[in-house]
Amino acid sequence: MTLHLYNTASRQKEKFVxxxxxxxxMYVCGPTVYDFxxxxxxxPVIIFDILARLLRIxxxxxxxxxxxxxxxxxxxxxxxxxKNGESIEALTTRTADAFHTDMAALGALPPNREPRATExxxxxxxxIGILIDKDHAYEAEGHVLFDVQSMPNYGKLxxxxxxxxxxxxxxxxxxYKKDPADFVLWKPSTPDIVGWDSPWGRGRPGxxxxxxxxxxxxxxxxxxxxxxxxxxxxPHHENEVAQSCCAHGEGTFAQYWVHNGFLTVEGDKMSxxxxxxxxxxELLAEAPGEALRLNMLSAHYRQPLDWxxxxxxxxxxxxxxxxxxxxxxSDVEADESTVATSVxxxxxxxxxxxxxxxxxxAIASAANKATDADERARLKGELLSGGAMxxxxxxxxxxxxxxxxxxxxxxxxxxxxxxxxxxxxxxKNYARSDEIRxxxxxxxIVLEDAAGGTTWKRV
Length: 459
Ligand code: AMP
Ligand code: ZN
Fold this sequence. Notes:
Elements: E1 4-7, E2 12-15, E3 24-28, H1 39-59, E4 64-68, H2 75-84, H3 88-105, H4 121-133, E5 137-140, E6 143-146, H5 162-167, E7 183-188, E8 203-205, H6 207-219, E9 222-229, H7 233-248, E10 253-260, E11 263-265, E12 268-269, H8 280-284, H9 289-297, E13 305-306, H10 309-328, H11 341-348, H12 353-369, H13 373-390, H14 397-402, H15 411-426, H16 430-442, E14 445-450, E15 453-458
Parallel strand pairs: 3-4, 3-9, 9-10, 11-13
Antiparallel strand pairs: 1-2, 5-6, 6-7, 7-8, 11-12, 14-15
Helix pairs in contact: 4-6, 6-7, 9-10, 10-12, 11-12, 12-13, 15-16
This protein binds adenosine monophosphate (AMP) and zinc ion (ZN).
């Protein structure tokens, strides 16, 4: 096995060599839970789900620790809770539950560990104390700030120099900062705002320190892979590097940095602030989760992916093709234990999901042509194991063709109309029977009359 990953830190594709093959660690920045996730937020979840599956195949389930946090204290959460008239706990519990439901519907497996920021406040206070002791941080007006000038390598991960950073809109200018690029580790909370006691007064952590502390608690000072969307490279990941390396020693922290590109809408990044987003919830009402997932995997993770309804439709058509091939293989038993080398090789090449899908389509085409029983059984195994690796083809073909999305006519209603049509035919009321067929067709349901009765599928 030779997994290669593009490492943002070195700006090149590198062979992945874990520090310890019996203990492979990956940390991915998870959601800030204050609202429903949009489909852009699902991109890292799906991509790192594929990477986690790949690592588990390569190193064994028990030897991979995939950690994805939940940010449950942050100013956006405080604002949203105030706006909704809801407690922070109620809001974060509700939105974290919704996040889990939505990501499961997209076929993402849960991570091994899912720490929450509020469970790690003590560790954050401790790390901030160490940074102050080592002269990498200072207290000012109830805030504790990281002193970027104390770290010669600051800016290395993102490749930014100090002027770029200050010019970038994302550093907050404040009078109590020694340098405009200094960032907050701890900030004061007024009595009406959530806070914890600390040596610097009652307050709450900054976002960046949360991930440095949770990754350390779960994976140690140094671990293999750190992931997230590319918008996190600066300032979030740059600041995580600064905090962790200054607290633990240069060269510690993540060895491989993996970042996904943006999911866009007509060229613009999908984001809450631009208002151009579609929630995963809304999209699941329009299309099956597997189709959304396949559409997500149709582009290489580092490339931008423009999200369109045509793309989702195409993904659904591709899945119909794959499920049709599987349906034709229903008479043979498959061995699904090993993933086809062609599919695995594509994924090992920096998670090349479009290439992996091309290989899966090729397997389906070969299966459609094959006549030999052994050959068909082998190809069925490859199709199912390749599909499972990608998190698709998990349903029985008959279920796939009958499954709709939330807005579609229900199976119960379809069966009632079919029964009514049989009755109408028996009474020679052909006008009514045709009417039922046509009305179902308009709703995407095709009836097939055969000797054994009427079957149906969604198209
Ligand atoms: P946020 O809740 O904004 O911190 O985002 C959670 C995760 O989703 C982070 O890893 C972001 O990088 C990622 N993300 C947010 N928007 C997009 C997008 N439009 N395309 C790809 N990834 C995104
Ligand atoms: Zn993070």
